[in-house]
Amino acid sequence: MEFFDNLFGKKNNEQPKPKVDSLKLEKTAEMLDEDIFWKIIDNSLKNTNNQTDQEQFLINEISNLTPKQMIGFRLRTDKLLYDTYNSEMWCASYLMNGGNSDDGFEYFRNWIISRGKEVYYKAKENPDSLISQKEFSEEDFYEFELFWYVALEAFEKTTGKDLYDYIDEDNFTTKEGNYPQFEFTWQEENPDSMKKICPQLFAEFENK
Q1: Ordered DSSP codes for 133-159
Q2: Which sequence spans correspond to the domains of the chain?
Q3: Which of 119, 131, 151, 207 has the most CB atoms at less than 10 Å from its CB?
């Protein structure tokens, strides 16, 4: 209970952060517990109303985790990105952002994760459900690049180290670089193929 009190707002200011040399830093492939992950995201949405503030809120909250859990936050993020790397989600990204690149597709899926568990899993099942999030854009783009790096910022802030150095790459495989191959089920030159996959998004963003 004390862990959750400290993590979600009831911080004991009398307890100083441990010195860097007292932290146990070792490589891990263990993802953060998914309930804790989504609780942090949910808390950030309740306490902020733009990406800049959400980013800073997340960095501060993640800084209250152990180093292993901070790494696990990034690994959980990468797993959620991995699980939504498919043609249908790319179609939604293309429509909502008026085009897409490989990097843009990554940032789009980070944005989806940043919108919370319910939004993520509904979109995973049916990307057209993202029509419910049409008002949550930043400068008319549905992307959140910096979300991908909040755990790295928190880790460096707390330990002075680079989080990437502590990922057990040999045992963590659901990540960028290992994405599955897929065939596109839609074509840019065939609008009806996009409309079939995401009819509501097509109607809203066709001419973006």
Answers
A1: GTT--BTTB---GGGGGHHHHHHHHHH
A2: 29-205
A3: 151
**For every one of its 208 residues, what pLDDT tens digit does the chain have, with 9 covering 90 and above?**
444 444 554 444 433 454 455 567 999 999 999 999 999 999 999 999 999 999 999 999 999 999 999 999 999 999 999 999 999 999 999 999 999 899 999 999 999 999 999 999 999 999 999 999 999 999 889 999 999 999 999 999 999 999 999 999 999 999 999 999 999 999 999 999 999 999 999 999 987 6
Identity of the residue numbered 205: F
What six digits make up the tokens of 114? 């940043």
pTM listed for this prediction: 0.89
A 10 A CB-CB count for 47 gives 12
CB contact at 8 A, 147 and 74: no
